[in-house]
Amino acid sequence: MADSFAVVFDTLTGVLRRHVELLTVQADTVSEYTLHTRTPSPFPQHKGKPMFFAQVRKGKAYVSFHLMPLYMNEKLSATVSPELKKRMQGKTCFNFKSGPDPELLRELERLTEAGLACFAERKWL
């Protein structure tokens, strides 16, 4: 199972690695890949620190893909397909035990790009 999770992890981090020119890599290990914004958060509770944008984390039971823009954008969240929603836990997390099929991978790419556009529009990048 661990070997298959490594493949899933690599596939999902590929979605995020395409956007490192706009974000900061906060963690890049064999079990976690995390991106934050480069600009300080506009929210007082973050005390001017960069905001969490996205993460892929390899766990014991699955690999998780977290996308924070879904939490802050109801319109974007409403575009998540029923197939991808089946993998959703909470508002921003999708769990995978095996690699997402090409259609779900394209959807994660679309959601990530739309999330970047939303953050850029709000000047949060």
Describe this structure in words.
The chain has 125 residues and is an alpha+beta fold. It has 5 helices and 6 strands; from the N terminus they run αββββαααββα. The chain has a 6-stranded antiparallel β-sheet with strand order 1-2-3-4-6-5. Strand 3 and strand 4 form a beta hairpin. Helix 1 runs parallel beside helix 5. The chain is globular and about 40 Å long.
Mean pLDDT figure: 94
Low-pLDDT sequence parts = none
Number of domains: 1
Number of helical segments with 4 or more residues = 5
Principal-axes geometry comes out as globular
Tell me the total number of β-strands: 6
What is the compact description of this entry?
The protein is an alpha+beta fold.
